[in-house]
Every structure is written in structure tokens, then in C-alpha cells.
Specification:
single chain, Cytochrome Bc1 Complex, Chain D, domain 2, binds heme C
Length: 180
């Protein structure tokens, strides 16, 4: 009996030592953790810099344009281009709407449709519509051509832009070869 009680007491003592030891260990870790939190708070702007960086990080970065174009679908592009139909015609000889006719726009001079009153910033662009330029313009028209008359926010999804560009290319007999 005496021996069993001793064993139980020993076990309890051992458990106590374990708990106390763990507590000491945790205490040893805690101060460094709270110190680093305080350090972050003390850094000027440190508290706000982190969440902002998380918020602005793109969900999925766009693949390079040549890869997106290689995987693009003319049919999907035609569906996306419904967003453009209120302002643009896509048919040969279809004439202007709020915006110029987009038949043959790939490889055409920027602001190059005769009979359409382009904005001054668009007329000042120069050059022809290539794939990179179209991708840039359609991401956010007002960013590439500040002051453009095109009142369209843009297509943020890189795959949608590639699909639309593939569709425009299918309607452009003078389109240059796809970028490699
Ligand atoms: C709210 C009307 C509107 C919508 C919607 C719109 N556009 Fe435009 N777009 C315009 C106008 C207006 C211009 C002429 C811009 C200027 O002169 O600054 C233009 C110009 C362009 C040009 C340059 C054409 C050239 O001859 O230089 C391209 C390319 C273009 N749009 C593509 C698109 C595509 C693709 C879509 C759909 C994803 C679209 N636009 C949606 C109004 C619109």
C-alpha cells in the first residue's frame, strides 16, 4: 500500500513538474513574441503597410501575352465583345457608332478610321494597333490614352483580353502574325 501511494504521489509530482516546466517554456517564448508585435506597432506606418500590400496583391498575375493569345478562343472573344457592341460595329462597312468600326482594327493605324471624330489624345498616339498595344489599351483605356473618348472601364482579366484580341484578329485581314 505504502509503495503504491508513493508511486501515485511521485506521478503527481512528475506531472506538476511537467506543467511548471511547460509554463516556464511558454513564458520564455511569449516575451519575444509580444516584443515583436510592439516593435511592428512602433514602426511608423508598419501597421498599415502590411494589410495594404495584401489588398493590392493581384489574385493571379497575367501570363505573358503570347501565351494568352496562343490559348485564346475567338468564340469566347465574340461573347466578351458583346460589352463593346453598344459603341462599336464589328462588320465590314458597318460604319461608326459612339466609337469607330473595329472591323480590321488589328494592324490598322491608331485613330485610323476615316470619318470618325477621334479625341486629340487618340490622334496623338501614332503607329498601328498591334497585339501589345491592344492588350494595354483594353486593360484600362484611360490609363494608356488619358483623355480618350472611349468611356469603358476596361477588361481586367488577361484571358478575356486575349480572347477579344483573337476575335478582333479574326476580323482583320491585315493583322500581323501573332507574337512568338
Ligand atoms: C461606351 C462606349 C464604348 C465601349 C463600351 C467600348 N468602346 Fe472602344 N472606343 C469608344 C470610343 C468613343 C473610341 C474612340 C476613342 C478616342 O477617340 O479617344 C473607341 C476606340 C476604340 C479602339 C481604337 C480604335 C481606333 O480606330 O483607333 C479600340 C481598339 C476599341 N475602342 C476597342 C474596344 C473594345 C474591344 C471594346 C469592348 C471590350 C470597346 N472598345 C468598348 C467607345 C467605346
Amino acid at each position: 500500500m505504502g509503495i503504491t501511494l508513493q508511486k501515485i504521489a511521485g506521478a503527481i509530482l512528475f506531472a506538476l513538474i511537467l506543467v511548471v516546466g511547460l509554463n516556464l517554456l511558454i513564458d520564455g517564448v511569449m516575451p519575444t513574441e509580444s516584443r515583436s508585435v510592439e516593435h511592428k506597432r512602433a514602426t511608423p506606418g508598419g501597421g498599415t503597410a502590411e494589410p495594404a500590400a495584401v489588398a493590392t496583391a493581384p489574385a493571379e498575375p497575367d501570363k505573358p501575352l503570347d501565351q494568352r493569345l496562343a490559348a485564346a478562343s475567338v468564340d469566347k472573344g465574340q461573347a466578351v465583345a458583346k460589352k463593346c457592341l453598344s459603341c462599336h460595329n464589328f462588320t465590314e462597312g458597318g460604319g461608326t457608332k459612339v466609337g469607330p468600326n473595329l472591323y480590321g482594327v488589328v494592324g490598322r493605324a491608331k485613330a485610323g478610321m476615316t470619318g470618325f471624330a477621334y479625341s486629340e489624345p487618340m490622334k496623338a498616339q501614332g503607329g498601328t494597333w498591334g497585339y501589345e498595344d491592344l492588350d494595354k489599351f483594353l486593360t484600362k483605356p484611360s490609363a494608356m490614352v488619358p483623355g480618350t473618348k472611349m468611356g469603358f472601364a476596361g477588361l481586367p482579366a488577361g484571358s478575356e483580353r486575349a480572347d477579344v484580341i483573337a476575335y478582333l484578329r479574326s476580323l482583320s485581314p491585315a493583322a500581323p502574325p501573332l507574337p512568338k
